Amino acid sequence: MALSEYPISTIDGEPTTLGAFAGKTVLVVNVASKCGLTPQYEGLEKLQETYADKGFTVVGFPCNQFLGQEPGTAEEIKEFCSLTYGVTFPLMEKIEVNGEDRHPIYAELTTVADAEGVDGDIRWNFEKFLLGPDGTVVGRFSPTVEPNDPVLVSAIESSLPN
Looking at residue 10, what is its pLDDT? Predict the structure, then answer.
């Protein structure tokens, strides 16, 4: 099955797939509300605002697998993201990104290595995967790579469909 075909639900419980973003450059990020990296939401939203009109979107996947740093309900996560960081990009249902209950999307994503050659399990909240407009993975970025990092921004810009 292609990465774009795996079923997922939005944070509102609506069924979808990554195929809903076909033709766009997509930054897939496992997110958490109570992490030292949570302020990255601000930078992710800035990317969304800057590039949305050029065929780009961030897609956040809340995950509670790293020291319980995303304990909230879907409604609590939505409210936190909206009120604290003004998040407008799509959020999906809370999922697992590692282990035997890893979502199939992340089973595929984790086969890709980052620039340092690291593949496999997600290391922490805010690990990033850049998908090109055709849905293929064009880059993996460490959780500590900030959304405004020139390498990430350059990768986004070179992958934009228009």
Answer: 98
Q: In the annotation, is 35 catalytic?
A: yes
pTM above the 0.85 mark? yes
Find, among 123, 120, 50, 63, the residue nearest to 89 by Cα. Answer: 50
CATH code (residue 87): 3.40.30.10
Catalytic residue, candidates 29, 35, 87, 97: 35
- CA 92-94-100 angle, 5° bins: 120
Looking at residues 76-86, what average pLDDT do you find?
95
**Which residues are CB-neighbours of 70 under 8 A, at least 6 positions away?**
31, 32, 33, 34, 35, 62, 63, 64, 77, 94, 125
pLDDT digits (tens, 9 = 90+) for 94-138: 999 999 999 999 999 999 999 999 999 999 999 999 999 999 999
pLDDT digits over 140-150, tens only? 999 999 999 99
- Which residues neighbour 96 within 8 Å (Cβ) at sequence distance 6 or greater? 63, 65, 102, 103, 106
Which residue range forms the structural domain that includes residue 26?
3-159
Number of domains comprising the chain: 1
